[in-house]
Write a sequence for this structure.
């Protein structure tokens, strides 16, 4: 796997780091490949129940490394290529592959969250940020549109007029404003510690129920009433009465910590 991304697993929580601190974790081709490879690796490890994604150094991600990518003329064609079996191209997958994981992904944000970095963060299920974090949909600076999955994620939790203003101007805003915009879940003075605490709490729950809940909320949030209700029932039928669900009941009755089994 690319050295642009590191993964460490502790207590069934994967700590994922963008690892280009000297460039404020700017996204080059190697990081794009690394993000896709890391998501695939985590997907294969059934003992991982939650992910914390953050940046090494002072920033989460300062955006796309345009000069680096433009050095090779065929990079643009590679980024805009959708491989068979996928509905997203390479540039979009470095964010969407995290969104599509069965397990919760928590982004810990600090420093700069610009352009590509913002779109990667928006693909997480939950975003915890330091209040001084600077954010921007910055693609307009380079005469571009945001095309790394923003329109597949942000409409679920932010107002269109706000996103239009931020996209048309590329203006920078602090995470405190991002909280008001719906782009940040909550603020914390130590986002990585807060994200890790939350991920550890989630990892202690029935993994079947957590993954079922993520699938339900991702799919049903904007469905019509009857489709949402039907999906609730469909997923609940796979969870209720299962080994892990019964373990949750028995542990609660016995006033002990549950011991859940991960799918092999």
């Amino acid at each position: 796997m690319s050295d642009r991304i590191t993964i460490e697993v502790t207590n069934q929580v994967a700590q994922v780091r963008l690892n280009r601190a000297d460039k404020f974790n700017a996204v080059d081709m190697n990081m794009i490949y690394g993000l896709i490879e890391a998501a695939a690796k985590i997907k294969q490890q059934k003992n991982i129940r939650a992910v914390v994604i953050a940046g090494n150094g002072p920033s989460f991600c300062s955006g796309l490394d345009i000069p680096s990518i433009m050095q090779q003329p065929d990079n643009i064609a590679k980024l805009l290529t959708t491989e068979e079996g996928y509905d997203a191209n390479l540039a979009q997958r470095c964010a969407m592959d995290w969104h599509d994981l069965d397990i919760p992904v928590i982004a810990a944000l600090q420093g700069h969250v610009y352009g590509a970095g913002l779109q990667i963060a928006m693909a997480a299920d939950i975003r915890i940020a330091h209040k001084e974090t600077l954010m921007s949909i910055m693609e307009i600076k380079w005469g571009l549109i945001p095309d790394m999955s923003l329109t597949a994620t942000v409409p679920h939790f932010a107002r269109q007029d706000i996103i239009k203003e931020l996209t048309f101007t590329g203006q920078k805003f602090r995470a405190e404003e991002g909280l008001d915009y719906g782009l940040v879940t909550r603020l914390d003075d130590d986002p990585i510690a807060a994200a890790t605490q939350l991920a550890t709490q989630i990892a202690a729950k029935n993994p079947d129920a957590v993954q079922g809940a993520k699938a339900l909320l991702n799919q049903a949030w904007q469905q019509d009433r009857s489709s949402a209700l039907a999906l609730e029932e469909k997923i609940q039928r796979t969870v209720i009465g299962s080994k892990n669900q019964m373990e949750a009941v028995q542990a609660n009755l016995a006033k002990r910590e549950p011991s859940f089994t991960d799918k092999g």
Notes: The first helix runs from residue 29 to 44. The beta strands are 5-10, 13-18, 50-55, 105-109, 112-114, 126-129, 134-136, 173-174, 186-187.
